[in-house]
Amino acid sequence: MAGNTFGTLLRLSTFGESHGIAIGGVLDGIPAGLNIDLDFVQAELNKRRPGQSQFTTSRNEEDKVEFLSGIFEGVSTGTPIGFMIRNKDSKSNDYSHLQSTYRPSHADFTYEKKFGVRDYRGGGRSSARETACRVVAGALAKLLLSKYNIQITAFVNQIGPIRLTRNYNEIDLSLIENNPVRCPDEPTALQMMKLINETKEKGDTLGGTIQCVIQNLPIGLGEPVFDKFDAMMAHAMMSINATKGFEIGSGFSSIDKNGSQLNDVFINDNGIKTKTNHSGGVQGGITNGMPVYFNVAFKPVATIMQSQESVNSKGETITLESKGRHDACVLPRAVPIVESMAALVTADFLLLSRGNKI
Amino acid sequence: MAGNTFGTLLRLSTFGESHGIAIGGVLDGIPAGLNIDLDFVQAELNKRRPGQSQFTTSRNEEDKVEFLSGIFEGVSTGTPIGFMIRNKDSKSNDYSHLQSTYRPSHADFTYEKKFGVRDYRGGGRSSARETACRVVAGALAKLLLSKYNIQITAFVNQIGPIRLTRNYNEIDLSLIENNPVRCPDEPTALQMMKLINETKEKGDTLGGTIQCVIQNLPIGLGEPVFDKFDAMMAHAMMSINATKGFEIGSGFSSIDKNGSQLNDVFINDNGIKTKTNHSGGVQGGITNGMPVYFNVAFKPVATIMQSQESVNSKGETITLESKGRHDACVLPRAVPIVESMAALVTADFLLLSRGNKI
Amino acid sequence: MAGNTFGTLLRLSTFGESHGIAIGGVLDGIPAGLNIDLDFVQAELNKRRPGQSQFTTSRNEEDKVEFLSGIFEGVSTGTPIGFMIRNKDSKSNDYSHLQSTYRPSHADFTYEKKFGVRDYRGGGRSSARETACRVVAGALAKLLLSKYNIQITAFVNQIGPIRLTRNYNEIDLSLIENNPVRCPDEPTALQMMKLINETKEKGDTLGGTIQCVIQNLPIGLGEPVFDKFDAMMAHAMMSINATKGFEIGSGFSSIDKNGSQLNDVFINDNGIKTKTNHSGGVQGGITNGMPVYFNVAFKPVATIMQSQESVNSKGETITLESKGRHDACVLPRAVPIVESMAALVTADFLLLSRGNKI
Amino acid sequence: MAGNTFGTLLRLSTFGESHGIAIGGVLDGIPAGLNIDLDFVQAELNKRRPGQSQFTTSRNEEDKVEFLSGIFEGVSTGTPIGFMIRNKDSKSNDYSHLQSTYRPSHADFTYEKKFGVRDYRGGGRSSARETACRVVAGALAKLLLSKYNIQITAFVNQIGPIRLTRNYNEIDLSLIENNPVRCPDEPTALQMMKLINETKEKGDTLGGTIQCVIQNLPIGLGEPVFDKFDAMMAHAMMSINATKGFEIGSGFSSIDKNGSQLNDVFINDNGIKTKTNHSGGVQGGITNGMPVYFNVAFKPVATIMQSQESVNSKGETITLESKGRHDACVLPRAVPIVESMAALVTADFLLLSRGNKI
Q1: Are the beta carbons of C69 and B224 closer than 8 angstroms?
Q2: What are residue C185's phi and psi, to 5 degrees?
Q3: Residue range D159-197, pLDDT digits in tens
Q4: Which of A288, C164, C326, D152 has the fewest CB within 10 Å, making it most exposed?
């Protein structure tokens, strides 16, 4: 019902199917007076665009965003920003064979059972194409955050077994865009690209993890109890297609340590900080001024170029030959999506925090 | 702001500080006509109660819930169910020394900076005592779910390095309450208890993971895009104190597999099912009728019985000696909290799903 | 912030300025499986269209709605319905003189002070042009309601001093579209048209009231306490531009009667009904199965074709000569807007009522 | 479902039935650092209390509010403020005869049909007793508003045909509490009291209107399009029991005037103001700095001390003899309720306005 809207004071509502006329959204709550750098927004969107490198689907979508409202003479007016991206290269014939087929680990089956009706072309609403709208909104949120010097940076830190062993604070984040897999460590990136190519040749796919860092956060973002900063961030990340896990700070590795090892001791170093940052910048659900960092796990892309067994809508066993144009590994293109959702969450909490005190 | 309310159609608002007069809540949206088994609710609450075993804090709270409205002659009336638990054994003197002290990895610092004012007694609003209200509401949600035969079961599957190696479908879930650590495998449970005792003697603490399984779910729960079943579940779990990670189905281990290995093939076995369940019962954010299972990582309890360095509100370095009564490992008592949040999420989606079709 | 979204389960978010690129919206929550009669939607929109008669502004907007998502092969899919209406005949030069002028009883001044930035062309976001999006969404809601035989009908019952003296149940509602003022009583309509013409010649404007009737409502719509059926309806109506009052059932005239005269006695006449309907179909905020009827008061259009004193943004006194193309009386075009908002409220409550009982 | 919660950033959730254990609520969003004057809150509540004068029901409820959380050392902490009022003098035996009876113009019938289950004692949830919680929350909102010098004042301006002919700006608002009917004009008040007494003797009841004025409002409160200041105020007022109409500024009388008469001309008089205030302080849904004023119509109390015909749950015609203790005219006690809802709306918009600009 309300599943297509995200946020409280900064609120994104999106619409659109993979192979319909257009996808788009309404972003309500960007404060008035923000300079909107349209080139920046388009550049962000281009990072998610299909066809940007040999590692991404060859679907050729220009993904040109058209803004319809809420911006006047280059500045936000405080009214909702409507935007739209027309679907151009939507070869929906590629999907006619899926009308009565349930692809393994896709949402064909669940959408059909939930709604009784289904736009089967390319996954319809459940397609990751929808995330382009998140990137548009996220780019606007980033522009707002940049006014407060808050910086959000994500990168690929694992693809299949190939893993970047260093943490966010040990690497040069400016190198992320230096290679098409968006891993800021060149040797690791090369290994990742090699693995993607090999896997793609076998018609198979890969998963991985993305790490996201938020720097220069003010103290005090996040709300008590249910809307903790990390809870909302987990919500945001797990709403991205193909994600299977979320961890913040020391995350799942916290289990291996005792409290005496994991506690972040407070120190006074030109202001109160913590000596370590196992908490990941959040304590009691509220930012403490240290960098927030978290990992998001993505499963391998479900569409493989191998024949698979499945079932059709009559319940008959069938063999499915995959068609269409798909990524062997979605991680590089997911980097701007992770950043965008992080930006939306952070900006919303920033606005909410204005009401903390009288 | 809105941080103390959870849910859309089934909506819980809670209030209360650890050492204030009372904690409580309002649960709005329980449909009319549900028999309310008050003994069941109290029994659920007792599972979370301090002082229930040698493994839990000795704070002696009776935790008797008092229902104030919304139930008439044993049946829900469709109006909000107000409830309250008075704080009885609140030795707030234990905390007077914390008035100007920031305990490591607690929320003292962040709450003070966010709000400027802080009820420093036992963590105030940020205390895990608040979760008792979630258990009351969760028990009511469970009663609703049981009308639809939906069953929610959580258990401890890791404490420190001691791990239950079998999965939810390989163990006898009826054994969970057989031991005070709520691990349904006796030998593992014994190891866990030994480890907790040893760690407690050192004045240290432990973390771990809880696994939760939801069975007999109808197909079609969860909403597209932002309010996916797993996204909302992640939100719910990460809102519980001390959680650091969430993963559903194959979770973080998905990374090590290829798409061809991880895809869940559909079969027709008295209805459409999947041969494997790496998806964890959710595809495209919507339940597919298979069991939902997920893991939640908890960091070790932050309050340790060792002296720690910290900083006071003047920014001066201090040495903190822990007082108060605390668990060395919170996992066993967190089991009913995980179940309760899972029940609230599931019941809310159940009600939302009534609007799916005309 | 959240001001551009309306509804809980059926949720409309709109965007767009009077003289921007487009206006549009996202309607989320239309259940799947509804046949979408596009001609009906356009016909509804045409009732609100400028230039439809001599009594409306000559701005020539085709107001052709383009649906972008959520409908597949003529049927709703349960996913959000995005739509857009391009602004075509937007002579924004007409408004350049208003850049630093505050028109009396318009929102120029308040928007500028609230946001610091203002799209001054034709009122920008505050223009009644935005209501076209409500009519599109309202038409979709009407299609949903018609499945349940619920009928919503509004008509003009007063313009200036000319008043339709009979009540909704004494008139033939099928005659509404017989004349351009949408008053179902021909002699009264003629008087109204005469008055509008006379007033327009003087460069002046008129207000009036619209009555709306909802028939065949199920018993039980509306939620206790804050979201009463009539409270939400008042909210909806008072959100329409230029409205100044709302009354349901006996409304303000209730004051003149005693309880013994105004109480609606229950009778059994093939089901429990009330002998009279002073309540207006709602008791305790919940529909009782009788027709709902209410009146909405509209002030005269603020833009008059006479010179007016005002103040510019520097605080200097100026004389304002009105330009642009405007209605002398907005009531006839407001009829579909009132119906649309009534349909959105009713449909939302219909969906909410599915959760009333277990 | 969500019907028992009101507000966005300042959010009140209430619970409780007329003759249950207690009524109460949770007010979330009061910013931290506000001095909470508990005596003021209780004094506000006393204005609504039954039994305060010969003109109100003799039900003897002390209505002592107990605060349970969110206040520490006399100051708000930014966490939810839970509160409770125990029902003491609840003679529910008075109502046992109503178990299967539908009182005319009460909510007995609609609640039973909606929910299938009904707490029939004294109207249960639909009783106006619930409004005591609004007064507690409203008093807290008033304390917040007083920090910004915003003042909210309501008074009775009509009971039956007896009407205060002067407007809010022509009367001395400090006289309101001088008489038990809360009409700030002594001769009119005396007439009203006489009429109430006469009507009560006949076993009959009276309605009327309350006028509310909000002074010293900042410019810019209210949100575009759906959440206009006046739309939300109408929602709030129409959610109060027994209200039948709402009008702001010139309201329904706007109809009798032309635009040239009704437009509020801007002038510069130590800041931009309007010469007249037909708009009622709101233009385009946003406050313009002039006083906001509006009227709320209340129908006569439905419980009369005369025998009435009705129907029982079997559909049989019965004669109903009223018992219980009831007001002949609820207007004087409704004054603090109107003020409270106005305060909640205003304070919420005040907090929302903090996000208007970057």
Answers
A1: no
A2: -125, 115
A3: 999 999 888 999 999 999 999 999 999 999 999 999 999
A4: C326
Interface test with A, best of C69, C88, C120, C133 (most A CBs within 10 A): C69
Record: contact B70-D15, CB cut-off 8 A: yes
CA distance B159 to A255: 7
Q: Model ipTM?
A: 0.96
Which of A126, A251, A257 lies nearest to residue B284, judging by beta carbons? A126
Question: Among B32, B351, B355, whose Cβ lies nearest the Cβ of C29?
Answer: B355
Residues of A in contact with D352 (CB under 8 A): 9
> Cα(C98)–Cα(C106) distance, rounded to whole angstroms?
12
Tens of pLDDT, residues B294-334: 999 999 999 999 999 999 999 999 999 876 667 899 999 99
Q: Tell me the C-alpha distance between D188 and D190, whole Å.
A: 5
Sheet strands (E) in chain C: 5-6, 11-16, 22-28, 66-67, 71-72, 75-76, 81-86, 101-102, 151-159, 162-163, 208-215, 243-248, 266-268, 272-274, 282-283, 286-287, 292-298, 308-312, 317-320
Show the tokens assigned to A332. Answer: 């590089």
Residue of C nearest to D256 (CA): C160
In angstroms, the Cα distances linking D160 to A311, B41, D195, D208 are 72, 50, 8, 5
Distance CA C100, CA A285 (A): 46
B354–C356 CB contact, under 8 Å: no
- Does A239 sit within 8 Å of B285, measured CB to CB? yes
Cβ pair B68:D22 closer than 8 A? yes
C318 burial (CB, 10 Å; 0-12 / 13-18 / 19+) is: middle
Q: Which residues of chain C have pLDDT under 70?
A: 1-2, 56-60, 89-94, 323-325
Look-up of token digits 């106006």: D128
Query: Of chain B residues 119-158, which have a CB less than 8 A from chain D?
Result: 119, 124-125
CA distance B13 to B7: 9
pLDDT tens digits for range C140-158 = 999 999 999 999 999 999 9
Which domains does chain A possess? 90-354 (3.60.150.10)
Query: What string of H, E and C letters represents the secondary structure of C103-121?
Result: CCCCCHHHHHHHHCCCCCH
User: What whole-number distance in Å separates Cα of residue A184 and Cα of residue D60?
Assistant: 73
* Calpha distance A229→A222 (Å, rounded): 4
Axis-axis angle for helices C131-146, C331-352 (nearest 10): 50
DSSP annotation string for D310-350: EEETTS-EEEE---S---SB-HHHHHHHHHHHHHHHHHHHH
Considering only CB atoms, B117 lies closest to which of D4, D28, D78, namely D78
Candidate from A79, A354, A357 with C-beta closest to D355: A354
Among left, alpha and beta (phi > 0; psi -120 to 50; other), residue D170 is: alpha
Q: Does C224 touch chain B (CB under 8 A)?
A: yes
Measured CA to CA, the distance from residue A247 to residue C84 in angstroms comes to: 40
B287: enclosing H helix or E strand: strand B286-287
Q: Tell me how long chain D is.
A: 358
* Mutation for testing the B interface, residue in D6, D77, D144 having most B CBs under 10 Å: D77
Measured in whole angstroms, the distance separating CA A118 from the mean position of its chain's CA atoms is 25
Secondary structure (DSSP) of B47-100: HH-TTSSTTS--------EEE-SSEETTEE-SS-EEEEEE--S--GGGGGGGTT
The first and second tokens of residue A115, run together, are: 């709604």
What's the pTM value of the predicted model, to 2 decimals? 0.97
Nearest to C32 among A16, A76, A116 (CB): A116
| For helices A331-352 and A38-48, angle between their N-to-C axes, nearest 10 degrees | 140
C205–D259 CB contact, under 8 Å = yes
- Alpha-carbon distance of D49 to D60, in angstroms, equals 9
